[in-house]
Amino acid sequence: MTFPLSYLFFFLTLILGTLLAVSSPSWFGAWIGLELNLLSFIPLITIKMNPYFSEAALKYFLIQALASTLIIMSSCLILLLPPVSTSLILMALLLKLGAAPFHFWFPQIMEGLSWPQTILLMTIQKFAPMFLISYLLTSATLTQITILSASLSAIAGALGGLNVMKLRKIMAFSSINHMSWMLIAMSINDTMWLMYFFFYSFISSSIAIFFHFIKAYHLSDLLNLNYSKSLYSLTLPLSLLSLGGLPPFTGFIPKWIMIQIMILNQMILPLFILLLSALVTLYFYLRIMIPFILLMNPGLSFNIKYLPSTSLSFFLPFIVSFNFLGLLLPFTFISM
C-alpha cells in the first residue's frame, strides 16, 4: 500500500498532538492535544474510499469523541467535586486507551484497518492517554481503579482471543492483555511502564510489519504460504514467542522485571491473574505458529502463492536483532 505525501503532514500533527497532551500543564491543554491527535488520525485511517476504512474511522471518531466529552466535562467540575471528576477523567482515559471494561471498540476497529494503521493504533495512539493516567495516580482510590482495570484487561485480552481466526483481532486482544501489565506498572512507578511500552511497541510493530509484507490477515492465509528459506518461516514464530513473554526472548525482559517488582510490592493476586492470562495468550500465539512450523514443507503446502518480497528482506535484520536480543544476552537480563 502506497501512502500519499500529504499523509506525512497528518502524521506530524498526530505526533504534535501527542506531545501537546503529554506536556500540557492543564486538562484543557491536554484535551486540545488529544483532539488534535484524534483529528490527525482520522485521515490516516481513510486512505482509500473503502467501506471498511470508513466504518473503522466512524467508530473510532464516535468513541474518542465520547471520551473527550467526558474529559472536558469532568475537568470543569474538578474544583467542585475533585474525587468524582478525577474518577470520571480516569474512566474516559481508559476508554480512549481501550482498556477493560471499555475495550469493546478496540478489536472491531483493528479489524477494519491495514497493518501500518494498526501499528499506529497499538503504539502511538496509546502514548498520550497512558501518560495522562500516570499523572492522575496520586490517590489510593484511583490506583485501585487502575489495578482493577488492569486485572479485567488481562482476563478480557486472554479469553477474547481464544476462538478468533483473524490476525488483526488476535493482535488487538494481545494489545489489551499487554495493556494490563502497563497499567500495573503505572501504579508502581513511571519508569516501569515506559520501559514495558518501549519493548511492546517494537515487538508488536515488527510482527505487524511481517504480516503486512506477506499480506496475511487471516489464519488461513498462513496455510497458503510457501517460503524457500527457513529463516522467514522461523522469524515470525519466534517473534510471537517474544511477544508472549516466553524466556529467554526479548519480550520476557520487561515481564521478568515486572514480576520481581510486583512480588516486592506484595501484589500477589494481580500477579497471579497476569501470569495466568499470559499463559492463555501463549496458546493463541501457538495457533499462529503451527502453519509456519508444520506446514512449510512443500509436500504439505496447499497452495504456493509467492516467495518473500525484497522489502521484507530489508526489515528482517531489524525484526531478528530486536526480538532475539534476549537469546544473545540471556544471563544479563535474568540477573537483573
TrEMBL record:
<dbReference type="GO" id="GO:0005743">
    <property type="term" value="C:mitochondrial inner membrane"/>
</dbReference>
<feature type="transmembrane region" description="Helical">
    <location>
        <begin position="143"/>
        <end position="165"/>
    </location>
</feature>
<dbReference type="InterPro" id="IPR003917">
    <property type="entry name" value="NADH_UbQ_OxRdtase_chain2"/>
</dbReference>
<dbReference type="Pfam" id="PF00361">
    <property type="entry name" value="Proton_antipo_M"/>
</dbReference>
<keyword id="KW-1278">Translocase</keyword>
<keyword id="KW-0679">Respiratory chain</keyword>
<dbReference type="GO" id="GO:0006120">
    <property type="term" value="P:mitochondrial electron transport, NADH to ubiquinone"/>
</dbReference>
<protein>
    <recommendedName>
        <fullName>NADH-ubiquinone oxidoreductase chain 2</fullName>
        <ecNumber>7.1.1.2</ecNumber>
    </recommendedName>
</protein>
<comment type="function">
    <text>Core subunit of the mitochondrial membrane respiratory chain NADH dehydrogenase (Complex I) which catalyzes electron transfer from NADH through the respiratory chain, using ubiquinone as an electron acceptor. Essential for the catalytic activity and assembly of complex I.</text>
</comment>
<feature type="domain" description="NADH:quinone oxidoreductase/Mrp antiporter transmembrane">
    <location>
        <begin position="24"/>
        <end position="79"/>
    </location>
</feature>
<dbReference type="GO" id="GO:0008137">
    <property type="term" value="F:NADH dehydrogenase (ubiquinone) activity"/>
</dbReference>
<keyword id="KW-0999">Mitochondrion inner membrane</keyword>
<feature type="transmembrane region" description="Helical">
    <location>
        <begin position="234"/>
        <end position="257"/>
    </location>
</feature>
<dbReference type="InterPro" id="IPR050175">
    <property type="entry name" value="Complex_I_Subunit_2"/>
</dbReference>
<feature type="transmembrane region" description="Helical">
    <location>
        <begin position="269"/>
        <end position="294"/>
    </location>
</feature>
<keyword id="KW-1133">Transmembrane helix</keyword>
<keyword id="KW-0249">Electron transport</keyword>
<comment type="similarity">
    <text>Belongs to the complex I subunit 2 family.</text>
</comment>
<keyword id="KW-0496">Mitochondrion</keyword>
<keyword id="KW-0520">NAD</keyword>
<keyword id="KW-0472">Membrane</keyword>
<feature type="transmembrane region" description="Helical">
    <location>
        <begin position="87"/>
        <end position="106"/>
    </location>
</feature>
<feature type="transmembrane region" description="Helical">
    <location>
        <begin position="61"/>
        <end position="81"/>
    </location>
</feature>
<keyword id="KW-0813">Transport</keyword>
<keyword id="KW-0830">Ubiquinone</keyword>
<feature type="transmembrane region" description="Helical">
    <location>
        <begin position="193"/>
        <end position="214"/>
    </location>
</feature>
<feature type="transmembrane region" description="Helical">
    <location>
        <begin position="314"/>
        <end position="334"/>
    </location>
</feature>
<dbReference type="InterPro" id="IPR001750">
    <property type="entry name" value="ND/Mrp_TM"/>
</dbReference>
<keyword id="KW-0812">Transmembrane</keyword>
<comment type="function">
    <text>Core subunit of the mitochondrial membrane respiratory chain NADH dehydrogenase (Complex I) that is believed to belong to the minimal assembly required for catalysis. Complex I functions in the transfer of electrons from NADH to the respiratory chain. The immediate electron acceptor for the enzyme is believed to be ubiquinone.</text>
</comment>
<feature type="domain" description="NADH:quinone oxidoreductase/Mrp antiporter transmembrane">
    <location>
        <begin position="86"/>
        <end position="279"/>
    </location>
</feature>
